[in-house]
Records
---
Amino acid sequence: MSGVLVAKLILSPALIALVTLAGRRWGHGAAGVLAGLPITGGPILFFITLDQGAAFGQRTAVAALIGLIAFTAFTVVYTWCSRALPWFLALPVGYLAYALVGLPLTRWHPDAPIAALAGAGALIAGANSMPRGEDPARMALPPPVWELPARMVAAGGVVLLVTSLTAWLGPGWSGVLTVFPIAATVLGAFVHHAAGPAAATRLLRGLTLGMLGVAGFMVTVSLTLGRLSLGAAFACGVAAAVASLGLLIGVLRLGRPRMASAIS
């Protein structure tokens, strides 16, 4: 087994596991924000660039920024559907929204700054359009022993699938699928089942806002690939993601206490 394949199988699942454990320690909203780090999109883009080259990776990063609009469609539709539907029915409706929005986006090819503004604007608008309110008092179900392994397998499977089909998909679909809502699926659906739709909404609101970190990562990588080495470009992207999330948390705590409490 090659080192690259081992990395694909380990990196994203390990990051999903860390976010899951953080959620158990600090709450669903905090887990959502932390999941906004490029825990699946970052590894996918890295392996795509490693396989296809910097130019392809650059176009994929820009397409991923546009794909954040489709990601937001999923989280908004899922949270509203979760009020009336169980998780296993809300998920396919959310996926349908993602596909219907994502398909035309693969034909849009803006410059990186325009793509970043469009993606970030969609995330902010989407987070503010999600339902509010609390579930009736209920006792959260303890997580089953298979929950964490299932989340990790799902994350690793998406990384393998997208990176294996990159040459066939092209940078447009590869970019949109780079931000496929895998974390939103594995985190949101489990929380919906265990703690109810309001808890899932808090998590997905936090995750949607947290994806601003992914936006920071993608736009930085798109602008530095080809100018810096692969490692340096991705290091700058990670730094931009962390800085974006730090700024987001500061704004929420200082300027938007209502929103901050909604994801806590």
---
Amino acid sequence: MSIGAIDRERIDWTRQPPARSGRIGVQIRVGVQIPVDMQSGEEPIAAVTRNISPDGAFVATRWPLRIGQKVALRLTIPGFSVPIVVKAEVRWVRALSAAEGALPAGAGVRFISPSIAASASIAALLQAHEMP
């Protein structure tokens, strides 16, 4: 699906209540695994999202990231033939744990001024995964 094929009537642009208390500005967040090529400096970093919202995502990776670090994410969203690129800032990190059943290592990132195409692609993804 190309950006031109998005049915604008199906995308709900209204603000939603926060998903969890204490998370101001979170609209809709879905747990979805999307392959990510993350770029910070010279080295590309392979990762995968575990959840995504219009404002940011959790990116599972064992690569050590720093709070405040700027990264470029290349997301391959299912149903879209062209990957989207969005700049982001690392807001928090979770280290690798040796405990069985522990949460995955990675980072919470906040999108920085995503393009209209990136925002529309993420909105379409969220719309497709919205619970009835």
---
Amino acid sequence: MRTNSQLKGVFCLEGLLDLDLANGSTVQGILKLLQDNLDIPFFYKDFAVEGELFYYLKKWAQAKYDRWPILYLSTHGGEFEIWDSKTGHRLDEIAEHLAGKCENRMLVVSSCSTMAANKRLLKEFLKKTGFLGICGYKNDVGFLKAAAFELLLIAEMQSNEFSGRGVESIRKRSVAIAKDFKDLDFRMVTLQD
């Protein structure tokens, strides 16, 4: 077992997944499962109000949150964008807020179709922010199946260091795991591509 200082924590920002507040769909359960079974630390914040997403992104980019290098955005989305409750935010808008602040960090985007974007746009996003890689789905996904895959994905990210060579190994193994979840159409783009 790795020591707590070797584990890569998860900073999760979850958008309003259902306008019906009685629906309790949330990724908090998988974060708790990762913590309870693998000791992976996590922060969890939800966002629904305009401005909350960017407030939390700026907080996460601070050096004091380096222990949580996996940014996990769980929300609705579209090609090259994620949504808060009312507004779509293009990834290049997010890059403006995180420019140069994401070195040795990874972005997991749990939303429909965000990764259907042109590879050139995704690479530009990585270069501007400094993220080692971005991953998510190229089509519409179901919550339960995506959550199951993300549990395995985040666990797999613990296996290698967050470096050029390490992230390439994570990419290869994650793509292999994704073969059992074909309908998710998982994609990971790294700075090394």
